[in-house]
Design brief:
Mean pLDDT: 96
Largest sheet: 6 strands, antiparallel
Shape: globular
Structural class: alpha/beta
Strand order of the largest sheet: 13-12-17-16-14-15
Radius of gyration: 25 Å
Length: about 650
Protein backbone atom coordinates (compact mmCIF):
# COMPACT_ATOMS: atom_id res chain seq x y z
CA UNK A 1 0.00 0.00 0.00
CA UNK A 2 1.00 3.63 -0.33
CA UNK A 3 3.23 4.98 2.43
CA UNK A 4 4.29 8.55 3.22
CA UNK A 5 7.06 9.71 5.57
CA UNK A 6 6.98 13.24 6.95
CA UNK A 7 8.21 15.42 9.74
CA UNK A 8 4.72 16.76 10.53
CA UNK A 9 1.28 15.78 9.26
CA UNK A 10 -1.41 18.43 9.62
CA UNK A 11 -4.96 17.04 9.61
CA UNK A 12 -7.56 19.63 8.64
CA UNK A 13 -7.91 22.56 6.25
CA UNK A 14 -9.55 25.22 8.38
CA UNK A 15 -7.96 28.44 9.56
CA UNK A 16 -6.04 26.66 12.36
CA UNK A 17 -4.72 23.89 10.11
CA UNK A 18 -3.51 26.25 7.41
CA UNK A 19 -1.92 28.53 9.99
CA UNK A 20 -0.07 25.56 11.48
CA UNK A 21 1.36 24.77 8.03
CA UNK A 22 2.29 28.40 7.41
CA UNK A 23 3.96 28.86 10.78
CA UNK A 24 5.93 25.60 10.42
CA UNK A 25 7.14 26.60 6.96
CA UNK A 26 8.14 30.06 8.19
CA UNK A 27 10.19 28.35 10.91
CA UNK A 28 12.07 26.30 8.32
CA UNK A 29 10.12 23.03 8.42
CA UNK A 30 10.01 21.64 4.87
CA UNK A 31 8.86 18.02 5.28
CA UNK A 32 5.26 18.79 6.13
CA UNK A 33 1.92 18.06 4.45
CA UNK A 34 -1.78 18.62 4.98
CA UNK A 35 -4.39 15.83 4.92
CA UNK A 36 -8.10 16.37 4.36
CA UNK A 37 -11.22 15.03 2.70
CA UNK A 38 -11.53 18.12 0.50
CA UNK A 39 -9.86 21.53 0.52
CA UNK A 40 -13.19 23.34 0.70
CA UNK A 41 -14.54 21.19 3.54
CA UNK A 42 -13.97 22.95 6.85
CA UNK A 43 -16.07 24.81 9.37
CA UNK A 44 -13.87 27.90 9.07
CA UNK A 45 -14.52 28.15 5.36
CA UNK A 46 -18.23 27.43 5.41
CA UNK A 47 -19.61 29.16 8.46
CA UNK A 48 -20.22 32.66 9.74
CA UNK A 49 -22.75 34.83 11.51
CA UNK A 50 -24.49 38.16 11.27
CA UNK A 51 -21.14 39.88 12.00
CA UNK A 52 -18.54 37.18 12.65
CA UNK A 53 -16.18 38.36 15.37
CA UNK A 54 -12.44 38.08 15.91
CA UNK A 55 -11.42 38.77 19.52
CA UNK A 56 -8.03 40.32 20.26
CA UNK A 57 -6.31 42.79 22.55
CA UNK A 58 -7.40 46.37 21.87
CA UNK A 59 -5.46 48.21 19.17
CA UNK A 60 -7.34 51.52 19.06
CA UNK A 61 -8.49 54.38 21.21
CA UNK A 62 -7.39 55.41 24.68
CA UNK A 63 -8.97 52.69 26.82
CA UNK A 64 -6.18 50.80 28.62
CA UNK A 65 -5.60 47.14 27.82
CA UNK A 66 -2.87 44.57 28.34
CA UNK A 67 -2.22 40.83 28.00
CA UNK A 68 -2.83 40.50 31.74
CA UNK A 69 -6.20 42.26 31.54
CA UNK A 70 -7.34 40.18 28.57
CA UNK A 71 -6.09 37.00 30.25
CA UNK A 72 -8.17 37.82 33.32
CA UNK A 73 -11.28 38.05 31.16
CA UNK A 74 -10.54 34.76 29.38
CA UNK A 75 -9.73 33.05 32.69
CA UNK A 76 -12.97 34.45 34.10
CA UNK A 77 -14.89 32.19 31.71
CA UNK A 78 -14.67 29.53 34.47
CA UNK A 79 -12.87 26.18 34.36
CA UNK A 80 -10.15 27.69 32.14
CA UNK A 81 -6.44 26.88 32.52
CA UNK A 82 -4.58 30.09 33.27
CA UNK A 83 -1.61 29.47 30.98
CA UNK A 84 -3.94 29.13 28.00
CA UNK A 85 -5.67 32.38 28.93
CA UNK A 86 -2.41 34.34 29.15
CA UNK A 87 -0.95 32.84 25.97
CA UNK A 88 -4.11 33.53 23.95
CA UNK A 89 -4.05 37.11 25.20
CA UNK A 90 -0.32 37.68 24.71
CA UNK A 91 -0.24 36.38 21.14
CA UNK A 92 -3.59 37.77 19.99
CA UNK A 93 -2.11 40.92 18.42
CA UNK A 94 0.69 39.02 16.67
CA UNK A 95 -1.73 36.52 15.15
CA UNK A 96 -4.29 39.17 14.24
CA UNK A 97 -1.74 41.37 12.49
CA UNK A 98 -0.46 38.44 10.43
CA UNK A 99 -4.00 37.90 9.15
CA UNK A 100 -4.31 41.59 8.33
CA UNK A 101 -1.00 41.50 6.44
CA UNK A 102 -2.18 38.44 4.51
CA UNK A 103 -5.19 40.41 3.29
CA UNK A 104 -8.09 39.77 5.67
CA UNK A 105 -9.97 43.11 5.42
CA UNK A 106 -10.30 44.05 9.08
CA UNK A 107 -11.40 47.71 9.11
CA UNK A 108 -9.19 50.58 10.22
CA UNK A 109 -10.06 54.22 10.72
CA UNK A 110 -8.32 56.97 8.72
CA UNK A 111 -5.47 56.97 11.26
CA UNK A 112 -4.78 53.26 10.88
CA UNK A 113 -6.28 52.07 14.15
CA UNK A 114 -8.02 48.70 14.18
CA UNK A 115 -11.20 49.90 15.84
CA UNK A 116 -13.31 47.48 17.85
CA UNK A 117 -16.65 46.92 19.52
CA UNK A 118 -17.90 45.08 22.59
CA UNK A 119 -19.02 41.50 22.09
CA UNK A 120 -20.59 39.04 24.54
CA UNK A 121 -18.55 38.38 27.73
CA UNK A 122 -16.20 41.23 26.74
CA UNK A 123 -15.25 44.16 28.97
CA UNK A 124 -13.01 46.26 26.72
CA UNK A 125 -14.39 46.48 23.16
CA UNK A 126 -11.75 44.08 21.86
CA UNK A 127 -13.86 42.61 19.07
CA UNK A 128 -13.44 43.28 15.37
CA UNK A 129 -14.91 41.77 12.22
CA UNK A 130 -14.35 41.51 8.49
CA UNK A 131 -18.06 40.86 7.97
CA UNK A 132 -20.30 37.80 8.15
CA UNK A 133 -17.64 35.54 6.59
CA UNK A 134 -14.58 36.50 8.64
CA UNK A 135 -13.35 32.93 9.17
CA UNK A 136 -13.82 32.15 5.46
CA UNK A 137 -11.66 35.13 4.52
CA UNK A 138 -9.06 34.03 7.07
CA UNK A 139 -8.96 30.51 5.66
CA UNK A 140 -8.67 31.69 2.06
CA UNK A 141 -5.80 34.09 2.83
CA UNK A 142 -3.91 31.47 4.81
CA UNK A 143 -4.46 28.84 2.12
CA UNK A 144 -3.10 31.12 -0.60
CA UNK A 145 0.07 31.71 1.37
CA UNK A 146 0.53 28.01 2.22
CA UNK A 147 0.06 26.95 -1.40
CA UNK A 148 2.40 29.70 -2.61
CA UNK A 149 5.05 28.13 -0.39
CA UNK A 150 4.53 24.73 -2.00
CA UNK A 151 3.20 22.84 1.02
CA UNK A 152 1.44 19.74 -0.39
CA UNK A 153 -2.16 18.86 0.44
CA UNK A 154 -3.43 15.28 0.20
CA UNK A 155 -7.17 15.29 -0.49
CA UNK A 156 -9.63 12.38 -0.21
CA UNK A 157 -7.83 11.24 2.95
CA UNK A 158 -10.03 10.31 5.90
CA UNK A 159 -7.78 9.72 8.92
CA UNK A 160 -9.29 6.73 10.72
CA UNK A 161 -6.56 5.88 13.22
CA UNK A 162 -3.60 7.45 15.02
CA UNK A 163 -0.81 5.03 15.94
CA UNK A 164 1.39 6.25 18.84
CA UNK A 165 4.49 4.14 18.09
CA UNK A 166 7.24 5.73 20.19
CA UNK A 167 8.33 9.02 21.75
CA UNK A 168 9.68 10.07 18.36
CA UNK A 169 7.34 8.38 15.89
CA UNK A 170 3.60 8.53 15.20
CA UNK A 171 1.52 7.02 12.46
CA UNK A 172 -1.72 7.76 10.65
CA UNK A 173 -3.97 5.41 8.74
CA UNK A 174 -5.96 7.17 6.04
CA UNK A 175 -8.93 5.71 4.19
CA UNK A 176 -8.67 6.85 0.56
CA UNK A 177 -12.24 7.96 -0.09
CA UNK A 178 -11.84 8.34 -3.88
CA UNK A 179 -10.92 4.67 -4.33
CA UNK A 180 -13.63 2.15 -5.37
CA UNK A 181 -14.69 -0.18 -2.59
CA UNK A 182 -13.38 -3.25 -4.40
CA UNK A 183 -9.86 -1.78 -4.82
CA UNK A 184 -8.25 -3.19 -1.68
CA UNK A 185 -4.70 -2.47 -2.83
CA UNK A 186 -5.30 1.30 -2.77
CA UNK A 187 -7.87 1.46 0.03
CA UNK A 188 -5.51 2.82 2.69
CA UNK A 189 -2.46 5.06 2.97
CA UNK A 190 -0.06 4.70 5.90
CA UNK A 191 1.76 7.81 7.14
CA UNK A 192 4.88 7.79 9.33
CA UNK A 193 5.86 11.06 11.01
CA UNK A 194 7.32 12.65 14.11
CA UNK A 195 4.39 14.98 14.72
CA UNK A 196 0.68 15.24 14.03
CA UNK A 197 -1.23 18.51 14.35
CA UNK A 198 -4.92 17.65 14.76
CA UNK A 199 -6.99 20.52 13.32
CA UNK A 200 -10.26 18.79 12.46
CA UNK A 201 -12.58 21.17 14.32
CA UNK A 202 -15.19 20.29 16.89
CA UNK A 203 -17.28 17.09 17.00
CA UNK A 204 -19.88 18.50 14.64
CA UNK A 205 -21.23 15.11 13.67
CA UNK A 206 -22.47 13.92 17.05
CA UNK A 207 -25.74 15.91 16.89
CA UNK A 208 -28.60 15.83 14.40
CA UNK A 209 -29.58 19.46 15.09
CA UNK A 210 -26.37 21.26 14.24
CA UNK A 211 -25.37 24.58 12.70
CA UNK A 212 -22.00 23.17 11.65
CA UNK A 213 -21.78 23.11 7.84
CA UNK A 214 -23.02 19.99 6.10
CA UNK A 215 -20.13 17.64 5.40
CA UNK A 216 -18.13 18.81 8.41
CA UNK A 217 -18.31 16.22 11.17
CA UNK A 218 -15.07 16.48 13.12
CA UNK A 219 -13.12 13.43 14.27
CA UNK A 220 -12.67 13.75 18.02
CA UNK A 221 -13.05 10.00 18.52
CA UNK A 222 -9.84 9.17 16.64
CA UNK A 223 -7.40 10.95 19.02
CA UNK A 224 -9.44 9.80 22.04
CA UNK A 225 -9.18 6.19 20.85
CA UNK A 226 -5.41 6.67 20.50
CA UNK A 227 -5.15 7.63 24.18
CA UNK A 228 -5.51 11.43 24.17
CA UNK A 229 -7.43 12.94 27.07
CA UNK A 230 -10.33 15.35 26.62
CA UNK A 231 -11.32 18.32 28.76
CA UNK A 232 -14.44 20.42 29.52
CA UNK A 233 -16.59 18.36 27.15
CA UNK A 234 -19.74 19.45 28.97
CA UNK A 235 -19.35 23.06 27.83
CA UNK A 236 -21.00 23.91 24.51
CA UNK A 237 -22.75 26.76 22.78
CA UNK A 238 -26.23 26.03 21.44
CA UNK A 239 -28.48 28.47 19.67
CA UNK A 240 -31.28 28.96 17.16
CA UNK A 241 -30.18 28.31 13.61
CA UNK A 242 -31.69 27.61 10.23
CA UNK A 243 -31.81 23.96 9.24
CA UNK A 244 -31.25 24.22 5.48
CA UNK A 245 -29.01 26.03 4.91
CA UNK A 246 -27.30 25.81 8.28
CA UNK A 247 -26.73 29.30 9.61
CA UNK A 248 -27.03 31.15 12.92
CA UNK A 249 -30.13 33.34 13.11
CA UNK A 250 -28.62 35.88 15.47
CA UNK A 251 -28.24 39.65 15.34
CA UNK A 252 -30.56 41.49 12.99
CA UNK A 253 -32.38 38.30 12.01
CA UNK A 254 -34.02 38.59 15.44
CA UNK A 255 -33.88 42.34 15.95
CA UNK A 256 -36.22 42.93 12.99
CA UNK A 257 -38.90 41.00 14.99
CA UNK A 258 -39.86 38.13 12.66
CA UNK A 259 -42.94 35.97 13.10
CA UNK A 260 -42.28 32.64 14.86
CA UNK A 261 -44.57 29.93 13.53
CA UNK A 262 -44.74 26.16 14.09
CA UNK A 263 -46.48 23.81 11.70
CA UNK A 264 -48.22 20.53 12.53
CA UNK A 265 -47.81 17.53 10.20
CA UNK A 266 -51.29 18.38 8.84
CA UNK A 267 -50.17 21.93 7.98
CA UNK A 268 -51.85 23.78 10.88
CA UNK A 269 -49.86 26.85 11.92
CA UNK A 270 -49.29 28.12 15.48
CA UNK A 271 -47.76 31.43 16.57
CA UNK A 272 -46.60 29.65 19.69
CA UNK A 273 -44.61 32.51 21.23
CA UNK A 274 -47.74 34.61 21.47
CA UNK A 275 -49.63 31.72 23.00
CA UNK A 276 -46.96 31.65 25.72
CA UNK A 277 -46.52 35.43 26.12
CA UNK A 278 -49.97 37.07 26.05
CA UNK A 279 -48.41 40.54 26.33
CA UNK A 280 -47.33 41.47 22.82
CA UNK A 281 -44.77 44.07 23.89
CA UNK A 282 -43.13 41.59 26.25
CA UNK A 283 -43.04 38.92 23.54
CA UNK A 284 -41.52 41.23 20.91
CA UNK A 285 -38.92 42.53 23.38
CA UNK A 286 -37.71 38.99 24.08
CA UNK A 287 -37.47 38.24 20.36
CA UNK A 288 -35.42 41.41 19.87
CA UNK A 289 -33.11 40.56 22.78
CA UNK A 290 -32.56 37.07 21.37
CA UNK A 291 -30.51 38.79 18.64
CA UNK A 292 -27.64 39.84 20.89
CA UNK A 293 -28.25 37.17 23.55
CA UNK A 294 -28.16 34.54 20.85
CA UNK A 295 -26.49 31.57 22.55
CA UNK A 296 -28.78 29.59 24.81
CA UNK A 297 -27.90 30.49 28.40
CA UNK A 298 -29.19 28.64 31.45
CA UNK A 299 -29.18 31.96 33.35
CA UNK A 300 -31.76 33.35 30.90
CA UNK A 301 -33.95 30.25 30.61
CA UNK A 302 -36.30 30.95 33.54
CA UNK A 303 -37.27 34.54 32.82
CA UNK A 304 -35.18 35.75 29.89
CA UNK A 305 -34.64 35.47 26.17
CA UNK A 306 -33.51 31.84 26.33
CA UNK A 307 -37.07 30.79 27.15
CA UNK A 308 -37.59 31.19 23.40
CA UNK A 309 -35.04 28.41 22.79
CA UNK A 310 -36.94 26.11 25.15
CA UNK A 311 -40.21 26.86 23.37
CA UNK A 312 -38.65 26.02 20.00
CA UNK A 313 -37.29 22.78 21.49
CA UNK A 314 -40.75 21.95 22.89
CA UNK A 315 -42.43 22.53 19.53
CA UNK A 316 -39.97 20.31 17.64
CA UNK A 317 -39.08 17.55 20.12
CA UNK A 318 -42.23 17.23 22.22
CA UNK A 319 -44.97 18.26 19.79
CA UNK A 320 -43.40 16.96 16.57
CA UNK A 321 -43.83 20.26 14.74
CA UNK A 322 -41.51 22.15 12.42
CA UNK A 323 -40.61 25.71 13.41
CA UNK A 324 -40.05 28.63 11.03
CA UNK A 325 -39.15 32.30 11.00
CA UNK A 326 -41.45 34.26 8.71
CA UNK A 327 -40.02 37.61 7.60
CA UNK A 328 -42.84 38.28 5.14
CA UNK A 329 -45.42 39.50 7.64
CA UNK A 330 -45.54 40.92 11.14
CA UNK A 331 -46.37 38.75 14.15
CA UNK A 332 -50.13 38.18 14.50
CA UNK A 333 -50.63 39.68 11.03
CA UNK A 334 -50.41 43.25 12.34
CA UNK A 335 -50.00 46.05 9.82
CA UNK A 336 -47.90 47.98 12.32
CA UNK A 337 -46.21 46.83 15.53
CA UNK A 338 -46.69 48.60 18.90
CA UNK A 339 -43.12 49.94 19.07
CA UNK A 340 -44.01 52.06 22.11
CA UNK A 341 -44.75 48.86 24.02
CA UNK A 342 -41.24 47.47 23.51
CA UNK A 343 -38.67 47.51 26.30
CA UNK A 344 -36.51 50.62 26.28
CA UNK A 345 -33.41 48.96 24.78
CA UNK A 346 -35.33 47.43 21.88
CA UNK A 347 -37.28 50.59 21.16
CA UNK A 348 -34.17 52.80 21.28
CA UNK A 349 -32.25 50.49 18.95
CA UNK A 350 -34.97 50.33 16.32
CA UNK A 351 -35.60 54.07 16.54
CA UNK A 352 -31.87 54.79 16.12
CA UNK A 353 -31.80 52.47 13.11
CA UNK A 354 -34.84 54.17 11.63
CA UNK A 355 -36.57 50.80 11.49
CA UNK A 356 -39.92 51.38 13.22
CA UNK A 357 -41.96 50.60 10.13
CA UNK A 358 -43.15 47.91 7.77
CA UNK A 359 -42.71 44.15 7.85
CA UNK A 360 -39.72 42.17 9.14
CA UNK A 361 -38.26 41.77 5.65
CA UNK A 362 -38.59 45.50 5.01
CA UNK A 363 -36.85 46.23 8.30
CA UNK A 364 -34.12 43.70 7.49
CA UNK A 365 -33.62 45.17 4.03
CA UNK A 366 -33.24 48.60 5.64
CA UNK A 367 -30.88 47.49 8.42
CA UNK A 368 -28.87 44.64 6.87
CA UNK A 369 -29.44 43.88 3.17
CA UNK A 370 -26.46 41.44 3.08
CA UNK A 371 -28.34 39.24 5.57
CA UNK A 372 -30.98 38.66 2.89
CA UNK A 373 -28.41 38.18 0.15
CA UNK A 374 -26.56 35.60 2.22
CA UNK A 375 -29.55 33.25 2.22
CA UNK A 376 -30.20 33.98 -1.46
CA UNK A 377 -26.62 32.90 -2.22
CA UNK A 378 -27.41 29.60 -0.50
CA UNK A 379 -30.56 29.01 -2.54
CA UNK A 380 -33.25 30.34 -0.19
CA UNK A 381 -35.14 33.58 -0.70
CA UNK A 382 -36.47 34.67 2.70
CA UNK A 383 -38.43 37.46 0.99
CA UNK A 384 -40.67 34.70 -0.41
CA UNK A 385 -40.22 31.66 1.84
CA UNK A 386 -40.26 30.90 5.54
CA UNK A 387 -36.96 29.86 7.16
CA UNK A 388 -36.98 26.59 9.11
CA UNK A 389 -35.06 26.73 12.40
CA UNK A 390 -34.16 24.52 15.36
CA UNK A 391 -32.15 24.68 18.58
CA UNK A 392 -28.74 23.57 17.32
CA UNK A 393 -25.22 22.77 18.48
CA UNK A 394 -22.90 25.59 17.43
CA UNK A 395 -19.51 25.36 19.15
CA UNK A 396 -17.76 23.14 21.68
CA UNK A 397 -15.79 25.08 24.29
CA UNK A 398 -14.09 21.86 25.37
CA UNK A 399 -12.03 19.42 23.34
CA UNK A 400 -8.71 17.59 23.50
CA UNK A 401 -6.69 18.51 26.59
CA UNK A 402 -3.40 20.24 25.69
CA UNK A 403 -0.46 21.80 27.51
CA UNK A 404 0.90 25.32 27.05
CA UNK A 405 2.35 24.31 23.64
CA UNK A 406 -0.93 22.71 22.56
CA UNK A 407 0.61 19.22 22.83
CA UNK A 408 -1.63 16.41 24.08
CA UNK A 409 -0.62 13.71 26.53
CA UNK A 410 0.66 11.72 23.52
CA UNK A 411 4.17 12.96 22.60
CA UNK A 412 4.13 14.54 19.15
CA UNK A 413 0.33 14.80 18.91
CA UNK A 414 -0.90 18.41 19.00
CA UNK A 415 -4.50 19.64 18.87
CA UNK A 416 -5.37 23.13 17.61
CA UNK A 417 -8.50 25.12 16.76
CA UNK A 418 -11.82 23.86 18.03
CA UNK A 419 -10.33 20.38 18.39
CA UNK A 420 -8.39 21.73 21.39
CA UNK A 421 -10.21 22.36 24.65
CA UNK A 422 -8.90 25.72 25.85
CA UNK A 423 -12.21 27.46 26.68
CA UNK A 424 -14.44 27.12 29.72
CA UNK A 425 -18.10 27.61 30.57
CA UNK A 426 -18.23 31.01 28.86
CA UNK A 427 -15.91 32.74 26.39
CA UNK A 428 -15.95 36.13 24.70
CA UNK A 429 -17.48 36.05 21.24
CA UNK A 430 -14.77 35.59 18.61
CA UNK A 431 -12.18 34.19 21.02
CA UNK A 432 -12.32 30.83 19.23
CA UNK A 433 -10.87 32.35 16.03
CA UNK A 434 -8.03 33.84 18.05
CA UNK A 435 -7.43 30.59 19.95
CA UNK A 436 -7.06 28.66 16.68
CA UNK A 437 -4.40 31.04 15.40
CA UNK A 438 -2.52 31.17 18.70
CA UNK A 439 -2.60 27.42 19.32
CA UNK A 440 -1.31 26.56 15.86
CA UNK A 441 1.53 29.06 16.28
CA UNK A 442 2.48 27.54 19.62
CA UNK A 443 2.46 23.98 18.23
CA UNK A 444 4.67 25.06 15.32
CA UNK A 445 7.12 26.80 17.66
CA UNK A 446 7.52 23.70 19.82
CA UNK A 447 7.91 21.35 16.86
CA UNK A 448 10.52 23.56 15.19
CA UNK A 449 12.52 23.80 18.43
CA UNK A 450 12.23 20.24 19.80
CA UNK A 451 10.77 17.84 17.22
CA UNK A 452 12.16 18.97 13.89
CA UNK A 453 13.12 16.72 10.99
CA UNK A 454 12.06 13.40 9.53
CA UNK A 455 12.02 10.10 11.39
CA UNK A 456 15.29 8.28 10.82
CA UNK A 457 15.37 5.42 8.31
CA UNK A 458 15.56 2.97 11.20
CA UNK A 459 12.60 4.57 12.97
CA UNK A 460 10.50 4.53 9.80
CA UNK A 461 11.41 0.93 8.99
CA UNK A 462 10.52 -0.18 12.51
CA UNK A 463 7.23 1.67 12.36
CA UNK A 464 6.17 0.24 9.00
CA UNK A 465 7.09 -3.28 10.09
CA UNK A 466 5.19 -2.97 13.36
CA UNK A 467 2.13 -1.57 11.57
CA UNK A 468 1.51 -4.63 9.41
CA UNK A 469 -0.77 -6.20 12.01
CA UNK A 470 -2.81 -3.02 12.42
CA UNK A 471 -3.19 -2.66 8.66
CA UNK A 472 -4.35 -6.27 8.40
CA UNK A 473 -6.93 -5.57 11.11
CA UNK A 474 -8.24 -2.51 9.23
CA UNK A 475 -8.48 -4.50 6.01
CA UNK A 476 -10.39 -7.26 7.79
CA UNK A 477 -12.68 -4.63 9.34
CA UNK A 478 -13.60 -3.16 5.95
CA UNK A 479 -14.11 -6.60 4.40
CA UNK A 480 -16.48 -7.54 7.22
CA UNK A 481 -18.77 -4.53 6.78
CA UNK A 482 -18.84 -4.39 2.97
CA UNK A 483 -22.20 -5.72 1.81
CA UNK A 484 -24.89 -5.36 -0.82
CA UNK A 485 -26.87 -3.24 1.65
CA UNK A 486 -25.98 -0.07 3.54
CA UNK A 487 -27.34 0.98 6.94
CA UNK A 488 -24.65 3.53 7.87
CA UNK A 489 -26.76 6.60 7.14
CA UNK A 490 -29.74 5.26 9.08
CA UNK A 491 -27.59 4.42 12.10
CA UNK A 492 -25.95 7.85 12.07
CA UNK A 493 -29.34 9.56 11.91
CA UNK A 494 -30.66 7.40 14.74
CA UNK A 495 -27.80 7.92 17.19
CA UNK A 496 -27.30 11.61 16.39
CA UNK A 497 -31.04 12.23 16.74
CA UNK A 498 -31.03 10.66 20.20
CA UNK A 499 -28.00 12.75 21.18
CA UNK A 500 -29.83 15.95 20.23
CA UNK A 501 -32.88 14.84 22.19
CA UNK A 502 -31.20 14.01 25.52
CA UNK A 503 -27.70 15.54 25.60
CA UNK A 504 -27.72 18.97 23.99
CA UNK A 505 -29.06 22.19 25.52
CA UNK A 506 -31.54 20.12 27.57
CA UNK A 507 -29.89 17.12 29.24
CA UNK A 508 -31.67 14.16 30.72
CA UNK A 509 -29.46 11.74 32.66
CA UNK A 510 -31.63 8.66 32.12
CA UNK A 511 -31.69 9.28 28.37
CA UNK A 512 -27.93 9.86 28.30
CA UNK A 513 -27.21 6.61 30.14
CA UNK A 514 -29.45 4.67 27.79
CA UNK A 515 -27.75 6.14 24.71
CA UNK A 516 -24.28 5.41 26.08
CA UNK A 517 -25.19 1.76 26.68
CA UNK A 518 -26.64 1.57 23.18
CA UNK A 519 -23.44 3.01 21.70
CA UNK A 520 -21.21 0.56 23.56
CA UNK A 521 -23.35 -2.34 22.37
CA UNK A 522 -23.11 -1.22 18.74
CA UNK A 523 -19.34 -0.74 19.00
CA UNK A 524 -18.97 -4.26 20.41
CA UNK A 525 -20.94 -5.72 17.50
CA UNK A 526 -19.90 -3.22 14.85
CA UNK A 527 -18.67 -5.59 12.13
CA UNK A 528 -21.83 -7.71 12.31
CA UNK A 529 -24.32 -4.85 12.79
CA UNK A 530 -23.01 -2.29 10.30
CA UNK A 531 -23.02 -2.73 6.54
CA UNK A 532 -21.66 -0.52 3.75
CA UNK A 533 -22.26 -1.05 0.06
CA UNK A 534 -19.62 1.20 -1.53
CA UNK A 535 -16.68 3.49 -0.81
CA UNK A 536 -18.98 6.24 0.45
CA UNK A 537 -20.58 3.75 2.81
CA UNK A 538 -17.14 2.72 4.08
CA UNK A 539 -16.38 6.36 4.80
CA UNK A 540 -19.69 6.70 6.67
CA UNK A 541 -18.96 3.52 8.64
CA UNK A 542 -15.72 5.00 9.94
CA UNK A 543 -17.56 8.24 10.62
CA UNK A 544 -20.19 6.25 12.57
CA UNK A 545 -17.46 4.59 14.62
CA UNK A 546 -15.90 7.97 15.39
CA UNK A 547 -19.32 9.42 16.24
CA UNK A 548 -20.10 6.66 18.72
CA UNK A 549 -16.73 7.04 20.43
CA UNK A 550 -17.10 10.82 20.56
CA UNK A 551 -20.65 10.62 21.86
CA UNK A 552 -19.58 8.26 24.63
CA UNK A 553 -16.86 10.65 25.78
CA UNK A 554 -19.32 13.56 25.84
CA UNK A 555 -22.07 11.51 27.46
CA UNK A 556 -19.66 10.34 30.15
CA UNK A 557 -18.66 13.95 30.84
CA UNK A 558 -22.26 15.11 31.10
CA UNK A 559 -23.36 12.20 33.30
CA UNK A 560 -20.37 12.66 35.60
CA UNK A 561 -21.10 16.37 35.91
CA UNK A 562 -24.75 15.67 36.71
CA UNK A 563 -23.79 13.11 39.35
CA UNK A 564 -21.27 15.44 40.98
CA UNK A 565 -23.24 18.68 40.74
CA UNK A 566 -26.74 18.19 39.39
CA UNK A 567 -26.81 21.95 38.73
CA UNK A 568 -27.02 23.75 35.39
CA UNK A 569 -24.53 26.17 33.93
CA UNK A 570 -23.47 27.68 30.63
CA UNK A 571 -25.44 26.68 27.57
CA UNK A 572 -27.18 23.63 29.03
CA UNK A 573 -29.72 22.69 31.67
CA UNK A 574 -29.77 19.37 33.52
CA UNK A 575 -33.32 18.32 34.23
CA UNK A 576 -34.06 17.71 37.90
CA UNK A 577 -37.27 17.16 39.83
CA UNK A 578 -36.13 19.63 42.50
CA UNK A 579 -35.70 22.50 40.05
CA UNK A 580 -37.94 25.19 38.67
CA UNK A 581 -38.86 26.13 35.11
CA UNK A 582 -40.12 29.21 33.34
CA UNK A 583 -43.75 29.83 34.25
CA UNK A 584 -45.82 27.74 31.86
CA UNK A 585 -43.16 25.05 31.29
CA UNK A 586 -43.23 23.42 34.74
CA UNK A 587 -45.20 20.34 33.76
CA UNK A 588 -43.87 19.63 30.28
CA UNK A 589 -42.56 16.07 29.81
CA UNK A 590 -42.47 15.32 33.54
CA UNK A 591 -40.46 18.40 34.40
CA UNK A 592 -37.98 18.23 31.52
CA UNK A 593 -37.38 22.00 31.71
CA UNK A 594 -37.03 22.14 35.52
CA UNK A 595 -33.49 22.79 36.76
CA UNK A 596 -31.36 24.48 39.42
CA UNK A 597 -28.70 27.05 38.55
CA UNK A 598 -25.04 26.33 39.21
CA UNK A 599 -23.51 27.95 42.30
CA UNK A 600 -19.91 28.16 41.02
CA UNK A 601 -18.60 25.40 43.30
CA UNK A 602 -16.77 23.64 40.44
CA UNK A 603 -15.32 26.74 38.77
CA UNK A 604 -11.80 26.03 40.01
CA UNK A 605 -11.86 22.51 38.54
CA UNK A 606 -11.71 21.17 35.03
CA UNK A 607 -13.15 17.81 34.07
CA UNK A 608 -11.13 15.38 31.96
CA UNK A 609 -12.34 12.29 30.09
CA UNK A 610 -10.47 9.30 28.70
CA UNK A 611 -11.75 6.43 26.56
CA UNK A 612 -11.26 2.69 27.00
CA UNK A 613 -10.75 0.32 24.04
CA UNK A 614 -14.35 -0.90 24.27
CA UNK A 615 -15.70 2.64 23.89
CA UNK A 616 -16.57 3.16 27.54
CA UNK A 617 -15.28 6.33 29.14
CA UNK A 618 -14.03 7.62 32.46
CA UNK A 619 -14.25 11.15 33.87
CA UNK A 620 -11.82 12.69 36.34
CA UNK A 621 -11.36 16.15 37.84
CA UNK A 622 -8.28 18.30 38.41
CA UNK A 623 -7.67 21.88 39.54
CA UNK A 624 -7.34 24.42 36.74
CA UNK A 625 -3.83 25.67 36.19
CA UNK A 626 -3.61 29.18 37.70
CA UNK A 627 -2.93 32.36 35.77
CA UNK A 628 0.85 32.80 35.42
CA UNK A 629 2.29 36.08 36.57
CA UNK A 630 3.70 36.84 33.11
CA UNK A 631 6.17 39.58 32.37
CA UNK A 632 9.70 39.08 33.69
CA UNK A 633 13.04 40.83 34.11
CA UNK A 634 14.18 41.73 30.60
CA UNK A 635 17.81 40.55 30.86
CA UNK A 636 16.71 37.12 32.13
CA UNK A 637 14.04 36.76 29.44
CA UNK A 638 16.52 37.84 26.76
CA UNK A 639 19.14 35.34 27.91
CA UNK A 640 16.63 32.49 27.80
CA UNK A 641 15.41 33.65 24.41
CA UNK A 642 18.96 33.58 23.01
CA UNK A 643 19.51 30.10 24.40
CA UNK A 644 16.31 28.30 23.42
CA UNK A 645 13.72 30.85 22.31
CA UNK A 646 12.04 30.29 25.70
CA UNK A 647 10.34 27.28 24.12
CA UNK A 648 10.36 24.70 26.89
Amino acid sequence: MKTITLSTAIVGVGAAGYNAALRLHKLGEQDIAIFCLAKNNSTSRNTGSDKQTYYKMSLAGSSPDSPAAMAEDLFGGRCVDGDHALIEAALSSRCFLQLAELGVPFPTNRYGEYVGYQTDHDTRGRATSAGPLTSKLMTECLQREVEARGVPTYEHMQIVKIIPFSEDTLGLIALCTNVPAEDEENRFTLVCCKNVIWATGGPAGIYAESVYPLGHTGTTGVPLAAGATAKNLTEWQYGLASVNPRWNVSGTYMQVLPRFVSVDPDGTEHEFLHDFYPNLGDCLSRIFRKGYEWPFDSRKAQNGSSVIDLLVFRETKLYGRRVYLDFRSNPQGLQSLPYDALDADARAYLESAGACFGTPIERLRHMNQPAIELYQSKGLDITKEMLEIALCAQHNNGGIDVDLWWQTCIPGLFAVGEAAGTHGVYRPGGSALNAGQVGSLRAAQYIARHRSGLPTEAQAAAFFAASEGEMAAQMAFTRAILSDEDNTRALLNEHCGEMSACAAAIRNVDGMRALMDKNISLLANFSTSVSASNSMGLSRAYRLQDTLLSQNAYLCAMISFAERSGLSRGSAIYSTAQGIAAKGLENDANGLFCYELDDGTLDALTQTVSLSPDGSARADWRPVRPLPEGGGFFENVWRGYRENGNVF
